[in-house]
Amino acid sequence: MIRFALRNLAVKKVQVILVILSVVVSAGTGVLAYNTAAQVSDGITGTAAYYSAIIGPSGSKTQLAMNSMYFTDEPLGVIPYSLVEELLRDSRVVSAVPFAMADEYNGYSVVGTSPEYLSGKRLAEGEMFAASGECEAVLGYTAAKVCGAEVGDLIYTGHSAGQTHKTPLRIVGILERTHTVYDSQVFTQLRTIWVLHEAEEEEEEEEEDHDHLELDGMVCAVMVKTRNPAYATALVGEYDGKVVSYDKGSGEGASLYTLTAIEPMATVRGILREADNTRYIVFVLCGIILAMNVIVVSIVTLLNMYHSAAEIALMRLIGIGMGRINLLYLVQNAFAGLLSTVLAFCVSRLCLGLMGGYVASMGVVLDPSKVYPAELLILFCVFLISVLPTLVCTLVMSRRDSLGS
Amino acid sequence: MIETFGLSKRFANETAIEYRDLVFGTGRSYMLMGASGCGKSTLLNMIAGILTPDTGRVVIDGTETSSLPQKEKDRFRIDRIGFIFQDFKLIENMTVRDNIDILRLEGIDTSGAGALLDELGLGRAAGKKVRQLSGGEKQRVAIVRALVKRPDIILADEPTGNLNFAIGEKVVEELLRVSRGKTLIAVSHDDRLAPFFDEVIDMNGVTGGRRSAPAQEARDD
């Protein structure tokens, strides 16, 4: 039965290819849209849930969240490091991790922080940079792989490719692949950022026009974990809009810094609400494509059946029963449907892989190996849709035996 | 043995065909002759269970096949009858072998097809698509498909109808050779083939079927 069904499919390859293409386009788009939306949502909320509060300079709360958690966009500015020490003394706070982002290495952002920022991340090789050391770097998996960097190598970071610092960083470790934005970053001690920029400022002290952040003794944000969510809300209430003064000791006197404090989950939910609207539009489009798929598959199947009428009559004449003929056509279409859905799945994974490389640079990492149950449900529905017209046709044929006509 | 009793068949265009009772002995070959439309093919179709007679009975080896449900008629046809059609009834885009193996859908063993194809000179054509074959070759493929299941009865509807006489004569010779010992009923309008068969039945007029319109039937009554 299966062999004959396959032979018969091979004979009708044009119609079969039409059906397969139709299903691959519709199911592939649906699955891809769902997976992308789900992974972006999961990635964003997963990272956001890790911190209770983030405190940074005044400005856009979305920008603060996106920069400090997903390394996208520019930092809002700087705030004094003394704030980290102040928070660590707060009994409500479990940890306060500094975050500074100023440089890049071959297009990969350099993040100055403490080893705690990478807690939970595993090293593929080497070791974590020492909290008390300086000029040591831990590279994310992709950054190391793309740059061909290995443990022990010296790398030169800078504001851009042509403007590198004179002091190199020594790679002490490479992170395991996480399929997150961490794969595309370079991590170093906060002190390293200060040291590099202190040296640079000395070199440039006579130049008036340099637009990068003055980072000595400063951070771009403080990532805070509190003992419970209520403390986080209270902390945000206290620090949001607060003005702190800080004297760098350079003789210029104290400067004032206005703070912004956010609860990452609340901010991210706001972002996702907007993303949900986009997802809704994508799903509506997928629905339209699926509806078109039903129409195309139905028409092609009906045309197939129409063209198969002579073949069915022939089989009836030589004694093949209607039950067997129905089963034959069902097997044929089920096989085409199965092939289509498998191809649709493969195409969606291929697209995810291709998109992954592109969107990783924007702070979103897509894992092609991640499969959601809803995706399988979508594929199963599409499979049913591709087989349904055959079921209807064979049912109609069963009632109208072509024998004797 | 095949027996028919009081068969008649009416068609949508109101034409009706009535048959006298006929008996076909086991292991013998018969040629049904007659003009076009006298009901030769209809008789074969009723014996095969493809058409159901409006009146009368077909009895094969004691079983009244004409009154069986369609499923059982299909089963009887696939198990016991080899039918050779005038227009071959082959799937043009499929290979010779596939056209024979189609019977496997109903669990028929087609392992003897190779030997039969060789016997009819088609051994090398097994992998060819039917559309690449000549008319004579197609008819031979149809014969192999009818005989591969080793039926007791072979019904051949104008097996030489699409062939010229020389090729047709050869096909009939081969058909008779490979169906030796089986009951063979062949329809033909070509009386030059008559000498090949054990018995010839003239289906014209009272000796065979009677073709009449309803009005004519009413007048006859």
Task: List the topology elements.
The complex is a heterodimer of chains A (405) and B (221).
Chain A: H1 2-11, H2 13-48, E1 53-57, H3 61-70, E2 79-80, H4 82-88, E3 93-105, E4 108-113, E5 123-126, E6 136-139, H5 141-147, E7 154-155, E8 158-160, E9 163-164, E10 169-175, E11 185-189, H6 190-204, E12 218-219, E13 221-226, H7 229-239, E14 243-247, E15 254-262, H8 264-317, H9 322-360, H10 373-399
Parallel strand pairs in A: 4-11, 6-10
Antiparallel strand pairs in A: 1-13, 1-15, 2-12, 3-4, 3-13, 5-10, 6-11, 7-10, 8-9, 14-15
Helix pairs in contact in A: 1-9, 2-8, 2-9, 2-10, 8-10, 9-10
Chain B: E1 2-10, E2 16-19, E3 22-24, E4 29-33, H1 40-48, E5 55-60, E6 63-64, H2 70-80, E7 81-84, H3 96-101, H4 113-119, H5 135-147, E8 153-157, H6 165-178, E9 183-188, E10 199-202, E11 209-212, H7 214-220
Parallel strand pairs in B: 4-9, 4-10, 7-8, 8-9
Antiparallel strand pairs in B: 1-2, 1-3, 1-5, 2-11, 5-6
Helix pairs in contact in B: 5-6
Could you describe the 3D structure shown?
The complex is a heterodimer of chains A (405) and B (221). Chain A folds into two domains: 2-44 and 271-399, no CATH class; 53-262, no CATH class. Chain A is 53% helix and 19% strand. Chain A contains ten helices and 15 strands. In chain A, the strands form three sheets. In chain A, strands 1, 3, 4, 5, 6, 7, 10, 11, 13, 14 and 15 form an eleven-stranded mixed β-sheet that branches. In chain A, a hairpin with a 2-residue loop joins strand 3 and strand 4. In chain A, helix 2 (13-48) packs antiparallel against helix 8, helix 8 packs parallel to helix 10 (373-399) and helix 9 packs antiparallel against helix 10. The longest helix of chain A has 54 residues, at 264-317. Chain B has one domain (2-220): 3-Layer(aba) Sandwich (Rossmann fold), CATH 3.40.50.300. Chain B has seven helices and eleven strands. Chain B has helices at 40-48, 70-80, 96-101, 113-119, 135-147, 165-178, 214-220, and strands at 2-10, 16-19, 22-24, 29-33, 55-60, 63-64, 81-84, 153-157, 183-188, 199-202, 209-212. In chain B, helix 5 (135-147) packs parallel to helix 6 (165-178). Chain A binds chain B through residues 1, 3-4, 7-8, 11, 311, 314-321, 324-325, 328, 401, 403-404, and chain B through 45, 50-52, 70-71, 74-75, 77-78, 81, 83, 85, 89-91, 93-95, 98, 101-106, 145.
